């Protein structure tokens, strides 16, 4: 296949993918955007709906770390696109969710003066675990940030031996405590399902947003001064700030969805981990692998209500765009280990094993800390090609089992051996209906040289 304006560089102003997102293009395509973190723009053409009609879909999975960078990448690689059918956030880690909280205000078409804002995103698909904090953040953001401060303060006083631990270790210890608290308090909550408000008072929403911004800023300042005075260790401070950032990103995403009138759907990992069956999504388009779609309850536990938002990869959502007679498959892995139980050794049940090429976003940016995910992928693989697309900001991430996949069965936006200061570069794939569903890389000169 020949596309004239293919180039292999990342600094030029022209896109490598001139036609991919043009209307009436009868092909599927995926672009790993050149962001720091994960952001995948996916076009799925000709999808049969339950009512028998056919429709093209445009989906963004995660938004990288910065709204501004995401906006630029969308303008560059999807020029002319003004509407995304679905925006998925796999989890609250800032290199996935950080770009999603503000990009719509920058990228979306501006409403006419006096008119109601028109959503440039049809639906946000968000982690079900966020529901309790979204409810609280919309009603009273200040109490959420203050609650988080009280919980963390309590933890540091009860665990003086955590003082010299690093942030990752502290996160592990806290998530263990949260798990124990959950098991002890199961079914205590007896409240209502949470539904995002349909009618919003935009002026009140803007005022609440400002209040939230002030509260989050105050919280960060308090943590910095505790760190400066030596009351808390470096690692504890770092973890505390990351939690504030996560809550803040959730707040911005929720506000944005409301402001632009987008629908929100929730995907709950916890319910899946109990039932072990994934439910929901849209048939023949995108289905969860490790979540149950529901209108979830607010959190069942009062204790550690905010600490449930630990950003551990375990809870990262995984979605699958299945193989059909018109579309080849894509698996969006986020940072998930792709398994459950001790050391995540039991792989998630896959909906099906595809017969043709499958594109897979590299779990946890290719990091060896998620090696188990790569072993699960290999256990699902049959004779068809499994092409890994790695995206991410960390040059040191591509490691371990990721390297067992050799080019052309892997591609990468930010290679380990790229020249210094070279920014992440978008990588595109196209699935031509005429070529038995094979995925082919649009900028094949960019060979992943991560070793
Ligand atoms: Zn990540
Ligand atoms: Zn690479």
What does the oligomeric state look like here?
Answer: single chain
Our measurement of the CA-to-CA distance between the termini, rounded to an integer number of angstroms, reads 29 Å
Shape: globular
CATH architecture of the largest domain: 4-Layer Sandwich
N to C succession of SSEs: EEEHEHHEHHHHHEHEEEEEEEHEEEE
Instruction: Compute the number of strand runs.
Output: 17
**Mean pLDDT across all residues, rounded?**
84
In helices, the fraction of residues equals 25-40%
Ions, cofactors, ligands: which are bound? Answer: zinc ion
Strand order of the largest sheet: 8-6-5-4-3-2-1-16-17
What is the name of the CATH class of the largest domain?
Alpha Beta
Q: What profile does the largest beta sheet have? A: 9 strands, mixed
Q: Would you give the CATH topology of the largest domain?
A: Metallo-beta-lactamase, Chain A
The Rg value, from CA coordinates, equals 22 Å
Number of structural units classed as domains: 2
